[in-house]
Amino acid sequence: KIPYWQSTFLIGLAYAIANFAFVWNRISWEGWLGGLAVIALAVLVSALLWTIFYKFDKKVFLEKINFAALSAHMLDASSTFIAVDFFGGVEEHPIPSLVSGFFGTGATQFFLKLIVLIPAIWYINKEMKDSEARNYLLVVIAILGFAQGLRNLLSIVI
Fold first, then answer.
1. How many CA atoms lie within 13 A of 87 on its CB side?
2. Are 142 and 69 in contact (CB under 8 A)?
3. Residue 105 DSSP SS3
4. Per-residue b/e over 6-27, b at no fewer than 16 CB within 10 Å?
5. What does the DSSP 8-state code read for residue 19?
6. Sign of the C-alpha dihedral, residues 136, 142, 145, 150?
7. Does residue 109 contact residue 77 with C-beta atoms inside 8 Å?
8. Calpha distance 17→124 (Å, rounded)
9. How many Cβ atoms sit within 10 Å of the Cβ of residue 65?
10. Which pTM value belongs to this model?
11. How far is CA 141 from CA 33, 61, 70, 110, in A?
12. CA distance linking residue 82 with residue 40, whole number of Å
C-alpha cells in the first residue's frame, strides 16, 4: 500500500546517510568551502538563465522538466569549473579538455553545455509529440547532469 517511489526514496536516503557517515571524518574545511561555492555558482547561473528565458519569453525552457535538465547540467558545469580551476582537477573528456585548455579555464563548461542543451531541449520539445517519451528523455538528460555534478561535488568536498 506504500507507493513505490516512497520506499525507493527511503532506501536511497538510508544509503546516502550511511555513505555520508562513512566519509564524514575525511571532509576538510577547504572541501566544505568548495562545495558551497559549487552550489552557490550553480544556483546563481540557473537563476541567471531563468531570468534570461523569462525576459525573452522563452517559456519552453521555463517548464519544470526542461529547467531541471538545464539546472542539473549547470551543477555539473559549476562543479567541473571549481574542481579544475581551484582544486587541481582535470577534465577527462577530450573536447571540453581541449576547449578549457585553449581558454585556460574550466568556465568554458557553461558555454559548452548550453551550446548542446539549448538546441537539444528545444528540438525534443518541438519534435516529440508523445509527452511520456519526451519527459522520459528530459529526465534522463537531467539525471546525467545531476549524477556528474554530484560526483564532482563530492570529490571536491572529500
1. 24
2. yes
3. coil
4. eeeeeeeeeeeeeeeeeeeeee
5. H
6. negative
7. yes
8. 36
9. 18
10. 0.84
11. 28, 14, 9, 16
12. 11
Residue 63 CB contacts under 8 Å (≥ 6 apart), including other chains: 125
pLDDT tens digits, the chain, 158 residues: what are they?
Answer: 778 888 898 999 999 899 888 888 877 888 889 999 999 999 999 999 999 999 887 888 888 999 999 999 999 999 999 999 999 888 888 999 999 989 999 999 999 999 999 999 999 999 999 989 999 999 999 999 999 999 999 889 88
CB atoms within 10 A of CB 156: 22
Q: Are 30 and 157 in contact (CB under 8 A)?
A: no
What is the per-residue burial (b if ≥16 Cβ within 10 Å, else e) of 115-124? eebbeebeeb
Which amino acid is located at 67 in the chain? Answer: F
Instruction: Retrieve residue 52's grid coordinates.
Output: 534570461
